[in-house]
Prior knowledge:
This protein is α+β, with helices and mostly antiparallel strands. It has helices spanning 2-19, 37-41, 49-56, 107-110; strands at residues 28-32, 61-62, 69-78, 81-93, 96-102.
Amino acid sequence: MRSIFLALALVSLTACGNFGFPGVYRIDVEQGNIVTQDMIDQLQPGMSQRQVRFILGTPLVEDSFNADRWDYPYLLRNGNDVIREASVSVYFDGDALTGVSGDYLPAWAVSTPAPANEPPQ
């Protein structure tokens, strides 16, 4: 009798996680850096890292093994549903901006070949 009760309780509790309760409000969760096309259009080749940080904000990911690349990922989700997802990477040679890749591109980066330190896609 006791084992049946425990098994029933266990099945009841695990069922809640899989289906959820109807009518439960789920908030929108934003993670990462919000980057817009207007912000990207302000970038110019040769800008310093300080100027890029002023326009785009502090990057979410600064790779300690590759200081010449900053990543700006963005994710908006409601529960498990992804509403919007975007990613932008900026590349430097020393302190000068040399390239941009990702979901938003300035006009000058569209016609320019990708920087050498960009991973293959």
